[in-house]
Design a protein that fits this description.
Layout: H1 2-18, H2 21-25, H3 29-39, H4 42-51, E1 58-65, E2 72-78, E3 83-88, E4 93-100, E5 102-110, H5 115-123, E6 131-143, E7 147-150, E8 157-161, E9 169-176, E10 189-192, E11 197-201
Antiparallel strand pairs: 1-2, 2-9, 3-8, 4-7, 4-9, 5-6, 5-8, 6-11, 10-11
Helix pairs in contact: 1-3
The structure holds fe (ii) ion.
Fe (ii) ion (FE2) is lined by residues 87, 89, 94, 158.
Keywords: Iron, Metal-binding, Oxidoreductase
GO molecular function, one term: oxidoreductase activity, acting on single donors with incorporation of molecular oxygen, incorporation of two atoms of oxygen
InterPro entries: PCO/ADO
Length: 206
């Protein structure tokens, strides 16, 4: 776990120095290696075994959260037939490692010229319908041990779907940096409309 924490701190520092573009181009193999290494440690395995629950449709088990939101590690569990709604990770990097089950990741990139619409939606309290154009990326079929990535400019919007009738779908997210209400790193949810258009929605409308 220490290597994973150190590497996340290093990536965060370089993100602060170089901006979000850094997160599109850095070598994420060391972070991947340290994630797998951490998952092989007995202490983390025991913590997961003792605390993972499936009481809600979507459950979150915190592993490591930094008070300054520089990074966060958390495990998400989707109960059978549950979809995690389409959401964004503005200026963030996310590694998702599948711990159990099978699921589908749908990914989207918002058209560059429509990004300002998302930013103004995040920063205003009066909400009216906002629609953006986006490109849908090929869906990924994920199974235990598979890894997928999200960066500021690659698959920044994603949704996870558990199509199983019986089994949960469980994945670990390594998030650098984390959401932060004091920056532009605020979450927005989206709903698919016709013709590759996405409607922005509020969390309380979900
Ligand atoms: Fe996400």
């Amino acid at each position: 776990m220490q290597n994973l924490i150190k590497e996340s701190q290093r990536i965060y520092q370089l993100f602060i120095q170089n901006g979000p573009k850094y997160l599109d181009t850095f070598d994420y193999q060391p972070l991947t290696k340290y994630t797998i290494e951490a998952l092989q440690t007995k202490s983390l395995q025991e913590y997961i075994n003792n605390n993972l629950t499936m009481n809600q449709e979507i459950s979150m088990l915190p592993i490591q959260f930094q008070p300054d939101n520089s990074f966060a590690f958390a495990i998400f569990t989707l109960a059978p037939k549950i979809t995690m709604p389409l959401h964004d990770h503005p200026d963030m990097f996310v590694l998702s490692y599948v711990l159990y089950g099978e699921g589908i990741r749908e990914g989207w990139n918002i058209k560059q010229s429509d990004l300002n619409k998302v930013n103004s939606f995040k920063n205003t309290t009066v909400k009216q319908d906002v629609i953006v154009e986006a490109e849908e990326l090929p869906s990924l079929n994920l199974k235990t041990g598979d890894i997928c990535y999200t960066t500021p400019n690659m698959c920044n919007l994603h949704s996870f779907i558990n199509n199983s009738f019986t089994k949960p779908f469980v994945f670990l997210d390594i998030i650098v940096p984390h959401y932060d209400e004091n920056t532009n790193r605020k979450i927005t949810y989206f709903q698919r409309e016709k013709d590759n258009r996405l409607k922005l929605i509020q969390q309380d409308e979900l």
